[in-house]
């Protein structure tokens, strides 16, 4: 009784005077969650994959306004040659972690890079190192989750994989199809058309249509935007529809600032004009950033935890069960 | 001319006679294009020769592409300009470099080139040599993607497999994807790697020492520009009041024939306007002769092995090889190698 009286007096202070009698107050829960999460901070693990030179690191730097790769030693000619000589190059997995803060909210961002993917002459199963890595993170979480002290579980699971498709070619290549099929059940795959400043608007439309058709034909399960609620306003629904029809996003990145109409923007300076990264008529960079960071970052994490990880967990538990049954069977014999 | 009547023999007209005869006879040229699909090979060929060789082409969908092996396709077109006829054959190599596993994907291509040499070799040794059909490949344009930071393993392996069979001209394709600085860096990189791996690409012959300074300067600039960074286009756009071949982007118009945009004009000048005949000569005098010498060596060493006196007549009326013949063959071989360098 006392407690409800306390809530009631709070209600008087709020603007909902008319609904005083029915106001319990749990409407503040989101705010509570909000406050706690700001305190706790967020983390996000993003993987990038695709052949070298497609602008992966440049795009990451543009998206997160970082310079994650400034210490990256781009191999000099001599080392490049040595690499070339190792014709059967192996695929590596490299992690970069950076802590960024914005308006009081902290984000621990981890970028998983996959140098060497798709670069060799023979790329059969070149994605194996990548699928193994993803499985290892799931395995580690699986064990931690089943352990005794679950206070500080380190969550290294990969929340999203940006897959870079080259803008030449006439749609997906065999290696693209095989990569995405190998990863679709382990991670949220977001295919991107990279180096989009290589295609005219008409070519871009054709390429996107082609890629969407082929993704459907091959039954590749890429990350799907959740449908917006039916009670959202018309403008929001329209935006949401446009976003979905724009996929796969065609992106351009840049580490350099150029001057356009008196403003300094990220862009690329060509003899025939200036490409602006954040100009929506030039590429879908803004759409990608909005989707990836501003509206769907949390959904990507949820899908990873609720779908991909749970699938892995289920499979593992089935394996363990089968093994136990086998052992029991052998003991009986 | 009248003043030197006494010393004027008149053979100075020989080039004109050759000229007249060749115009009557017409020319032929076989150009091969190789590189992954989508790098703009057919667009470039159409831009270079102002043709529409590929208008009936059906692009494969992804499913068909997965099972594709490397093919060799030929398109022949007869074009005429100012009374001069050219029978142009383009040899295309669809499927090259597109698979997941590209091990030895150049084998169908090297086999094709060898087959043309083989056919010419037999025809040349035959009885009726009046109408030999020359299908030998005179030049191979190899398209390097503009991404990446230089040559890729497949590029190195392809060029090494072909550099002693055909004149290789490496190109940086889709150059409208690179800023001027990036183009320069990539060209330097590719040139270094070509040298490091000992890849023998087509070398422009040195211009004569008695050419004028301006010509020598142009020649030098041409050589320092390689590998050429090219853009092609099948569409005509309006730029600065003129209708030109180009690509229309939201941020500007790329003009194929604008030398500050790409090296298309340099490539066209080199390939067609000044060095087409040299490419044919090097093919005939170097690559084909290498093949021929190689063939003859194989045959003679085989005969030596067999060591049969009652063997059937060999293709060429060779005596049982003795030391003298072997020496001559070896000498000719060395001569040919020296000419190449």
TrEMBL record, chain A:
Signal peptide as annotated in the record: none
Subcellular location, record wording: Cytoplasm
GO molecular function terms listed in the Swiss-Prot or TrEMBL record: GTP binding
GO biological process entries: cell division
Keyword entries, A-Z: Cell cycle, Cell division, Cytoplasm, GTP-binding, Nucleotide-binding
Gene3D superfamilies per the UniProt record, alphabetical: P-loop containing nucleotide triphosphate hydrolases
Main subcellular location: cytoplasm
Site residues (Important for dimerization), renumbered to this chain: 168
GO cellular component, one term: cytoplasm
Protein family membership: Belongs to the TRAFAC class TrmE-Era-EngA-EngB-Septin-like GTPase superfamily. Septin GTPase family.
Protein name: Septin 5b
Organism: Cyprinus carpio
UniProtKB/TrEMBL annotation, chain B:
Entry similarity comment: Belongs to the TRAFAC class TrmE-Era-EngA-EngB-Septin-like GTPase superfamily. Septin GTPase family.
GO MF assignments: GTP binding
Lineage top rank: taxon: Eukaryota
Pfam families the UniProt entry points to: Septin
Listed name of the protein: Septin 5a
Keyword Acyltransferase set for record: no
Domain Septin-type G, residue spans: 25-298
Annotated site residue numbers, Important for dimerization: 147
Location within or outside the cell: Cytoplasm
Keyword Cell cycle: yes
UniProt cross-references to InterPro entries, sorted A to Z: G_SEPTIN_dom (IPR030379), P-loop_NTPase (IPR027417), Septin (IPR016491)
GO terms under cellular component: cytoplasm
Organism: Cyprinus carpio
Keywords assigned by UniProt, alphabetized: Cell cycle, Cell division, Cytoplasm, GTP-binding, Nucleotide-binding
GO biological process: cell division
């Amino acid at each position: 009784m006392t407690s409800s009286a306390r809530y009631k007096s709070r209600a008087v202070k709020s603007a909902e005077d008319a609904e005083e009698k029915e106001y319990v107050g749990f409407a503040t829960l989101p705010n509570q969650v909000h406050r706690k999460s700001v305190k706790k901070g967020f983390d996000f693990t993003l993987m990038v994959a695709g052949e070298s030179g497609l602008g992966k690191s440049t795009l990451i730097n543009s998206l997160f306004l970082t310079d994650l790769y400034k210490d990256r030693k781009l191999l000099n000619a001599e080392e490049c040659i040595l690499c070339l000589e190792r014709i059967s190059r192996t695929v590596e997995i490299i992690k970069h972690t950076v802590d960024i803060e914005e308006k009081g909210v902290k984000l621990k961002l981890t970028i998983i890079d996959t140098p060497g993917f798709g670069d060799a002459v023979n790329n059969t199963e070149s994605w194996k190192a990548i699928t193994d890595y993803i499985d290892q993170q799931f395995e580690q979480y699986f064990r931690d989750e089943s352990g005794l002290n679950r206070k500080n579980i380190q969550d290294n699971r990969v929340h999203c994989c940006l897959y870079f498709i080259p803008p030449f070619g006439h749609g997906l290549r065999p290696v693209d199809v095989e990569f995405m099929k190998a990863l679709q059940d382990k991670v949220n795959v977001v295919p991107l058309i990279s180096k989009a400043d290589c295609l005219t608007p008409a070519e871009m439309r054709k390429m996107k249509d082609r890629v969407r058709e082929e993704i459907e034909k091959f039954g590749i399960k890429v990350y799907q935007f959740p449908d917006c609620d039916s009670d959202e306003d018309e403008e929001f629904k329209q935006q949401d529809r446009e976003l979905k029809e724009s996929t796969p996003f065609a992106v351009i990145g840049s580490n350099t600032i150029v001057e356009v109409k008196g403003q300094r923007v990220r862009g690329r300076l060509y003899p025939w004009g200036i490409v602006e990264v954040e100009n929506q008529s030039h590429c879908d960079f803004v759409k990608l950033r909005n989707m990836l960071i501003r509206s769907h970052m949390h959904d990507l994490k949820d899908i990873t935890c609720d779908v991909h990880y749970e699938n892995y967990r289920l499979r593992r538990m089935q394996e363990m069960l089968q093994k136990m049954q086998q052992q029991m069977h052998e003991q009986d014999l």
